[in-house]
Fold these 2 entries.
Entry 1:
Amino acid sequence: MNDLGTFGGDESIAWGINDRGDVVGHSFYAGSEDGRAFLYSKGSMIDLGTLGGVVSVARGINNSGGIVGASTTLNEEPHAFYSMDGSMIDLGTLGGLLSVAYGINNSGQIVGYSLTAQGQLHAFLDSDGSMRDLGTLGGTRSEAFSVNERGQIVGSSSVAADVAFHGFLYSDGSMTDLNSLVDESGVGYLIHTGTSINNAGQIAAQALNPNGETRAILLIPRRGVEKAKPHP
């Protein structure tokens, strides 16, 4: 275990790492309560700056060194950003005043969430500079946390009437409730968040077990099965 240090303050948090061992996160300067996004590479912690405000946090990095996260702007509005070679770009929003980027794949596809013009928080996919609203599972809120090289996305969304949150898989232009994809082994579990997806389609998620306790779970695709038995 290696301590990556700080910018002089008491705290630093790492959020992402790529295959080269480059690490991103946020850290604090001495006497400051405003965290700054960092890139830790070749033994050095580098301040990535901001979009004009005072706070920034880096959440993900791909193998090309593309970094995503969120930063306050001059108007102190949190906006998702993409940073490469020291240049930070504002990704904008879905029409509202807030956006946050969580994940980026090696093709440069970026996922996160943003406020819409109607004031709803929706998951987004940013590809080639265009931010797309991924919608929800029937409620008013969704968040995307991870995207693999096939463009498959996982996250969490409220369902009809916002009564609960369910994990989702977004693939081929459609958002699917993860609970509808599990077989008999998942009976009694409620998957509320898909946190990460790899290139094999395996999904790390969070679920409530039959006793209402939170558990980390792994969802493994079954090849050759057209439709698994739905979760009750």
Entry 2:
Amino acid sequence: MGAALAKAVMEQGGTPVIVSGPTAISYPPEAEIHYIDTTEQMLQCCLEFFPYCTGVIGAAAPCDFRPASFSEQKISKPKDGNGITLQLSETPDILAALGIVKRPDQWSVAFALETENGKTRALEKLQQKHCDLIVLNSPESIGENEASFQVFDATGERRKVFTGTKRVFAEELLRIIRGLELRCTTAIPAR
């Protein structure tokens, strides 16, 4: 989805700034691409570049949890055969952090991948993250060229139901953003 969005932005004359974890996906080489390894690194990179952007689209979720502690050494199996307990800590919510610092001339769009109570959970996330739009999709969309999407605005109104290629949906999502006048009118050059 991120690659499709980047291509659509470029076709409309924009310069996307992509912050991505390790992936086999090929992004447009003309885009400004920043690779990171952790959710914390992604947050720092997004906070650095967001002030220079007209908006943000959180097309893929980073890890929600990370190990609470790390070991430099191999963790051996316990001799008693009882296994080990892994403690997890929450990672930062990147879009919520960007939503807090978002200027009035900026917009933000979240994606919500849900398996149950999709609309309810998506609208909760939209409010928690201070987003202007949220795109609801399902796990079937992962790694596939085609998917189904629903787009909701900040009032909870469903703006679009779409089934088709991610490429065509990316173009449609950008039209929705423009149609809601969320796009800033000031051109901001890429760094």
